[in-house]
Design a protein that fits this description.
By secondary structure, this protein is mainly α. The chain is built from five helices and two strands, in the order H-E-E-H-H-H-H.
């Protein structure tokens, strides 16, 4: 899942950094028969809503500064967030340790059980009963 998030992040960064292709401007025209046709013309001028790389970097820097100042403006929200995160970390460490101890004990019990069972001697193994003795 982490791989998908990283891929999405880097593809988004790549999409922002690549130059945008020239888009054809579609204009609608009505012909004499009333049928609408499309005529495509290349846009000679740069649209006003197109963002350059320098402007995008400036906006990203301002957004980063705003995010970094969030805790200064909202101290109580950040304190609660830190408390929740530290609680989750503590719980994960505690229950992870409990699971590790339980798994270690089970592995030790299984190892002791396999080492304490002696191999059955050849004479004690059950041999197939012959028909002669079974029918007597």
């Amino acid at each position: 899942m982490s791989f998908l998030f990283r891929c999405a992040f880097w593809l988004t960064v790549l999409a922002f950094l690549l130059p945008s292709p020239e888009k054809p401007a579609a204009t609608a025209q009505l012909s004499a028969g009333g049928i609408q046709t499309m005529a495509y013309e290349t846009a000679a001028q740069k649209p006003e809503d197109d963002i350059g790389a320098d402007e995008m970097l400036t906006m990203a820097a301002r957004s980063a500064q705003d995010v970094m100042g969030f805790c200064e403006r909202n101290r109580s929200i950040c304190d609660r967030g830190h408390a929740v995160v530290s609680h989750v970390i503590d719980q994960s460490l505690f229950y992870g340790g409990q699971a590790f101890v339980w798994l270690s004990e089970k592995a030790r019990e299984q190892q002791q059980a396999s080492s304490s069972q002696p191999a059955a001697p050849a004479s004690a193994r059950s041999a197939p009963v012959s028909r002669e003795l079974a029918g007597a």
